[in-house]
Structures are given as C-alpha cells and as structure tokens.
C-alpha cells in the first residue's frame, strides 16, 4: 500500500481533540449572532428607504389654511372655495397625475391619534388637506410651483416631502454605514481568531507535520485537513448563533411594530432578506475554511 493512498484515507493530525475547538465555536456563534442582528437592521433600513421612495417621494401635500371668521359656516364655505381653486390649479399642472382632497372622515382619521375619540373636526379650525400624486420623471421647480399655487389660492401652502425626507434618508444612510462597519469588524475579528488559532495548532503539531512531509504529504493536503475541520466548526458555530439570532430579530421587529403610526413600521424583512440571513452558517463555514486553508499554506512556507 502506497503512502499516498494511506494519507488519503486517514487524517493524521489530531485536530478534533484540540481545546481551541470550543473556543472557536463560541467566537463564531457570537459573531454570527451579532452579524445576523446587524444585517437584519441593514436590510430593514434599506426596505424602509425603498418604501419611502415609492410612497412619499411620488407625492406632495397641499394644505389649505382655514379662514378665520366668527361665522363658522361662512368660514368653512370660504375655506372649501379656496380648496376648490387649489384643486383646479393643481390639475392643470404638467406632471401631476392625481389630485385628491381629503374628506372630513379621512381628516378625522388623521387627527384621531392626536385628538382622541369624540372630537368633531367641524368644530375645529382644522386645515383642509389635498393629496397630490406626481409623475416619477416630473421635474418641478417647487419654489415656483408654491408661488403659483399661492397666487391661485391664497390660503394654500405646498409641503414638499423631499425637504425633510432627504434628511431622514441621510440619517438612515448613516445608520447603514455604521452597521456595515460593524459587519466588517465582526468578520475581521472572526477571521483573526481563526488565523491565530490555526497558527497555534500548527505550532503544537509541528513534529507531526514534519513527519507527514517526510512520507510525501504536501502543504495543500495539510491545509485541507485544517480547512475541513474549521469549516465544520464554522458551520456548527453559525447554526448556534443563528438559533439565538432569529428570535432576537422577531423580538426587535415586534417592538418596531408597536410604534403605531411611526415611520419605523415601514421597515421589514422580505423572503429574500430572510434567505440571506439563514445562509449565514454557510457564510461562516466558508470564511473559516478559506481563512484556515490560506493560513496553513502561508505559515508552512515560513516554518519548513
């Protein structure tokens, strides 16, 4: 029987009994847990930004300031007249696809979280609201549009959502940058732990490796043994980390849903996002395998 066939059948390096295995599993489990939580946050923020872009950036809000008069019926009639003038003007603007004045019932629903039940909006000097949908490729001079609107209906004012939404998007982008930095740091720390653990193991098994070289083993064969072992540890550690991360993600998601009427509720994870998160054990396995393989190859060139 040739030495090469014997080597191919059996792993001579006692890697399974090393004390560092448990240490690496714990490190990888913690890393995958942090990675999964952070990644879910990144994906949720991306989903939230996409939702804002679709639902808000394609719309404008026009507010009709109520006429102030002691005669409430007269004031309401004048306010509705200004609303009608604003609607007529907006429908004539190129790029506006839909103009919808909100009814009293819709206004009541909007004000309900702030005023509570049992409030009659007709008794309050509440502004009229007009929802304006614009074409995605429309190029408006919003300052000029606001002036023309005020000329057509003096009680009307234009609210361009881009002015404040851009600030929210910039804030969300900042959160994404921080989260991405955390992901890179977690990956680097995990790879570093695997690197130094592998080097330590190579030092402990230095004499066995020398014997393997004498009987014909190549550096690639030794590196493959370490890569297989680290891949197993990476996968098991990833499964453990994901096991604790998934309930944590659902818990954080439920906290976000509890914020009624808030923009945070626009965040969410779709099927594709969950697929990426659930593949993290395979990712940790790949990182562990490649790190161990190239660490062994590089270290053996220096040792022998």
Explain how this protein is built.
The chain has helices at 3-9, 20-55, 72-91, 104-115, 142-152, 162-204, 206-214, 219-257, 271-278, 280-303, and strands at residues 59-64, 96-101, 128-134, 156-159. It has 304 residues and is α+β, with helices and mostly antiparallel strands. It has 2 domains: 15-54 and 165-299, no CATH class; 58-160, Alpha-Beta Plaits, CATH 3.30.70.100. It has a 4-stranded antiparallel sheet. Mean pLDDT is 80; it is low at 1-9.
Give the overall silhouette: elongated
> How many β-strand runs?
4
What value does the Rg take, in angstroms?
32 Å
Q: What is the N-to-C succession of helices and strands? A: HHEHEHEHEHHHHH
Number of domains: 2
**Structural class assignment:** alpha+beta
Helix content: 55-70%
Beta-strand proportion: 5-15%
Largest sheet report:
4 strands, antiparallel
Query: Could you give the order of strands across the largest sheet?
Result: 2-3-1-4
- Terminal CA distance reads 27 Å
Mean pLDDT: 80
Counting DSSP H or I runs of 4 or more residues, the number of helices is 10
**pLDDT under 50 segments (min length 5)?**
1-9
